[in-house]
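Hi V.,

You were right to ask for the full record rather than a summary. Here it is.
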Amino acid sequence: MLKSTKFVDLLDAPFSRRGSFLAFANDNYGEDLYGKCNLWLCSSRITGITDFNVNNGFRILKLQLVKDGKPLPSVISTTPYEVILQSRYGSVRFTFAERKLVLATSDSPDVSLRMTLQKTVSWFVDPEPPTPLTKVDGAVIDFRASKLQVYSDNLWQNSNYTEARPGADGKLFIAFEDFFKGEPKIRAGYPSYADGVADVKADFDDYCEDICPKLPAEFEPGRLQALWQNWSMTVEPDGESAYKRRMVKMIHSIFEGAFVWQQPLQAIVHARNPAIAWDIFCSGFEHMGEDGKMTDSLTYEDVPSFGLKPPVHGTALLWLMDNLDFSKLPAAEKAWVWEGLKKWTDFWTNTHDVDGDGVVEFAGLLETGWEDAPYFNVGFPCASPDLNALVVLQMEALARLGRDIGKDETICAEWESKAKTLTKKIVEKFWNGTEWFAFNAKTGEKSDSHTISLYFPLLLGDRLPKEVVDKSIEFIFAPNHFDTPYGLATETLDSDYFFHGFTQGSVITPSSFWMSLALEACGRADLAKKVSRAYCAMQRDTGFFHIHNALTGKEDRSLTAFGEKGLFWSAWSSGAYIYLAGRYGE
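Predicted structure:
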């Protein structure tokens, strides 16, 4: 019986290449066992969320090994550069020779590859018998928003499937090319399979060397997989998609888009290459309305964004200014970012302060980033310390960047003054002497949950009174509160609202990342190191999932949509691993 060998398991992470909209995946409800898996060629040209209950059709073309006209039981293996479909009679290997071109090859004279387009079949109706197989020069397959041109020199087709067979030399060669715009066509010649592997290998290896050539020994075992996840989820302008700069998407199929509030984190992750980090950071400002509202997420197609996420851009910009040679970045782009950051900050202060008290509020769940956080039980508009702390840091970033680009000192000083005023109000309005809370701006009702995002004001560090910082840290690390062997839980373990979920007690990426920066801002690098190492060890051992159980450290895939069995690896999480393991791993 065959067993697979895996660089990544396709049940955990669909297999793709930087900039590609093609991907390989296992069956939705498949298993990693001989005869219990099927390989699918998928399309990630998925637009914005419309209906979570409808299958989005991510898997399109089933790929099966065939001998004497019969499908063979198989296993799926992977390397960083190839997917391998294996049977007892031979294998077919696949590689991304180019971003739009997948090549397949086999030296097994007895094995063919069958390609079956996904379609709905009723158990209660006998299927139509297939038409006879006919040899064709090529096949064009509807592939969601694009067309897939399939070429092989021994290609056969009937009404049910397309089949590529070995040629006279006993070898198999297949090309799958994705055409989004323009008519599909067969090339006069294709790169060799070996050249295709060499191309994707060079692309990935260069990325690894550029972004994170090594990690401390304890976390080195997860480095290549984390980098691969980030690299494979990266999209860039291609003249066809809506992307105007490099961005990193989140999770294949379920959260396929590049979420704008994740790009500042990814900018920090990519800081070893300042040009890439800056490009990623700038990406969100390319997609904002005249009112200053940033798009929530961006897919290959620019569709209306119905969501909104917290303004973390100022926090990340201050980090970049501290850690990059900022003087070498384009002056014109820095000025352009200043204008965008001003609009983004004004959007919150002008449109999200319904009671006019000078602190901003969340207007609804879809703009919080913590959609099931218990403190939203007070209803909306919900004024919270985390949101206001992020706005303070945007104001400070405007002052600092303003001086860097030569803005008038009165403008910079005004932003500093606004930041100090809001910082004072945060303590006055959201701190009860022992812990942080949120409140409904209309009713005044105060939250009674212990949720980690309420402690984001620690990002302000010594701008807060020392007593507030000390008591906040004491609360975080008190027994049965947030501190666990796997990092910081999103709700205290003894909370009446500890129900796991997303922000009801699990360990998740955004809070793990930003709270590590917050603890360091408070001069507690020792605690940042403690929680970051715990988080990274968990990720290394279980995979780069977005949500983990705070009591067991195991991945939690219960958040589902579009008929998927569960969440795949997240580039948000792999990015956090790269940064946190590198900074705190020793």
